Amino acid sequence: MKIFIGQKPDRQHVQALYRCKLEEHGALLDLFRKKLEETKDSLILAEDSVRIHRLQGRAEVLADFLEAVEKSHEIFDRVK
Q1: N vs C: which end of the chain shows fewer Cβ within 10 Å?
Q2: What would the DSSP string read from start to end of 16-61?
Q3: Exposed, middle or buried: residue 12 (CB in 10 Å: 0-12, 13-18, 19+)?
Q4: Residues 6+ apart with CB under 8 A from 25
Q5: Where do the domains of the chain lie?
Q6: Residue 7 CA to chain centroid, in angstroms?
């Protein structure tokens, strides 16, 4: 969550993340979850360290985004 919501979260950014939880954006979250799973699968099979580091970074960003979306409601209430 540290990538998308830092120490001083911007209200509009947190609100945008919260909107991603709405049903109309469910396909977007499904896409991110699918890409995270694909990245994890690729990470298991990766052999060279450069590829491993890139995949770890990608997985971290995807997981951080999904966590930020999940916790956005709690944070939005505090930012008001």
Answers
A1: C
A2: HHHHTTSGGGHHHHHHHHHHHHHHHHHHHH--SHHHHHHHHHHHHH
A3: exposed
A4: 19
A5: 11-79
A6: 17
Decide: 17 and 4 in contact? Cβ < 8 Å: yes
Question: What is d(CA 45, CA 43) in angstroms, rounded to the nearest whole number?
Answer: 5
pLDDT given at position 80: 65
Count the alpha carbons within 13 Å of 65 in the hemisphere toward its beta carbon: 16
DSSP class of residue 6 equals: -
Confirm if 7 and 30 have CB atoms less than 8 A apart: no
- Phi, psi torsion values for 48, nearest 5 degrees: -95, 150
pLDDT the model gives residue 43: 97
Are 43 and 77 spatial neighbours (Cβ–Cβ below 8 Å)? no
Tell me if the pTM is above 0.85: yes
